[in-house]
Write a structure and sequence with these properties.
Number of helices: 9
Helix content: 25-40%
Structural class: alpha/beta
Order of helices and strands: EHEHEHEHHEHEHEHH
Largest sheet: 7 strands, parallel
Radius of gyration: 17 Å
Number of strands: 7
Strand content: 15-25%
Strand order of the largest sheet: 3-2-1-4-5-7-6
Length: about 210
């Protein structure tokens, strides 16, 4: 069964760095990947753009392809966007379909600070987006939890609904959403940092041109 992978974030705004790693993960896993904008991210400041504005940017960015899609369920939920709640809801919907939570290596290293983090393995696999040749130090509590869960065999993920951790070597683009917001606030044009669909309608980037860069 083709896995369903989830890639969350504020996407404030969505940029080519987000899309390139999501696309590579989709190819490595042969998976459908849903980009899932967070409502109230527990570990980050509130987004500058509204939920509707961020969804509009995502839809504009994902035109003319069908491997990456948008899932807005966290925007419809009140309160913080806890990943465990989202994955438990998806598990109820998807049955035994393999679910893969995609995380950057730095976010993965901070997993023990997350809400009900050990229970994440009950509802999904974890795909760690790593940079070739770059090692991230993991806390002992996380090593102890993943020691028997690690695999480099994608077929293991396809044969089980949840529970494995796989490292996915992707090509990171060093693009900063903060820097993009600064450029837009200064009246500059961050072309080639953002998907071209975001430039087709000037209203899409207006929240950053009017607001202060964060």
């Amino acid at each position: 069964m083709k896995p369903l992978a989830l890639f969350g974030g504020t996407f404030d705004p969505v940029h080519l760095g987000h899309l390139s790693v999501a696309w590579e993960a989709a190819e490595l896993l042969d998976a459908e990947v849903r980009l899932m904008p967070a409502n109230v991210p527990p570990h980050k400041p509130a987004p500058l753009a509204t939920a509707d504005q961020r969804v509009a940017m995502l839809h504009a960015a994902l035109q003319k392809q069908d491997r990456l899609t948008v899932d807005t369920r966290e925007l419809r939920r009140e309160g913080p966007s806890y990943t465990y709640d989202t994955l438990r809801e998806l598990r109820a919907e998807q049955g035994a379909r393999p679910l893969v939570l995609l995380l950057g290596a730095d976010a993965f290293a901070g997993l023990p600070t997350w809400h009900r983090w050990r229970e994440l393995f009950d509802v999904a696999h974890l795909g760690v987006l790593s940079r070739p040749g770059v090692e991230v130090e993991l806390p002992h509590t996380l090593w102890a939890e993943i020691d028997t869960r690690r695999t480099d065999d994608v077929s293991s993920l396809r044969a089980s609904p949840a529970g494995y951790v796989i490292e996915l070597a992707v090509t990171p683009l060093e693009i900063s959403a903060t820097r993009i917001r600064e450029l837009l606030a200064a009246g500059r044009d961050p072309r080639y940092l953002l998907p071209c669909g975001l430039f087709e309608d000037p209203a899409l980037l207006e929240p950053y041109r009017r607001g202060k860069a964060g």
